[in-house]
Amino acid sequence: MKNVTDSVVYLGHWSSAGSFGFNTDILATNPINLSVVLGVLIFFGKGVLNDLLDNRKQKILNSIRNSEELREGAIEQLENVRARLRQVEMEANQFRVTGYSEIEQEKLNLINSTYKTLEQLENYKNETIRFEQQRTINQVRQLVFQQALQGALGTLNSCLNNEIHLRTISANIGMFGAMKEITD
Asked: What are the residues whose beta carbons fall under 8 Å from the beta carbon of 23, sequence distance 6 or more?
């Protein structure tokens, strides 16, 4: 490093025609050098820097566009899911209401069916009671008729003797004969 500094200092001692030379004053030459370097960098690096900045800008814009598209897609999916959720909730409410109404309808049907069955059983019971009453009445009639017939036969047998018996039979035969002649 010392060799480089010595050579710069050594070059500063050359006397030239006065138009070109090295200025060894660091404070005076530094801003000029910096402005020259910056000017060269700006002049030649402007295109590269613009390209880098444009590429970066495009990447950022593409990222923003992609983010917007993803956001819009997510919003659309969210709306679809919300709509589906509303539809499912409505269907669930409809099933719940329909289920309750079907349960109530089945309950009413069961109650009506039970009432009809009870009514039929009541009718069968009443028919059975009437049938049994009629049968009992018929049995009592037969029993009363048999007892009355036995009593009448007993009275007739005790009151009738052979002569009255033969006269009654003759009178009945005569009646049947008269009826036969009328019908012929």
From this structure: 12, 29
The rounded distance, in Å, linking the Cα atoms of 92 and 183 is 90
How far apart are the C-alpha atoms of 21 and 8, rounded to whole Å? 11
From CA 161, how far away is CA 165, in angstroms rounded? 6
Task: Decide: pTM greater than 0.70.
Answer: no
Give the separation between CA 49 and CA 41, rounded to whole angstroms. Answer: 10
Q: Alpha carbon of 134 to those of 130, 137, 144: distances in Å?
A: 6, 5, 15
Helix boundaries (H) for the chain: 2-12, 26-159, 162-183
Per the model's pLDDT, the better-predicted residue between 32 and 35 turns out to be 35
Q: Give the pLDDT score at 50.
A: 84
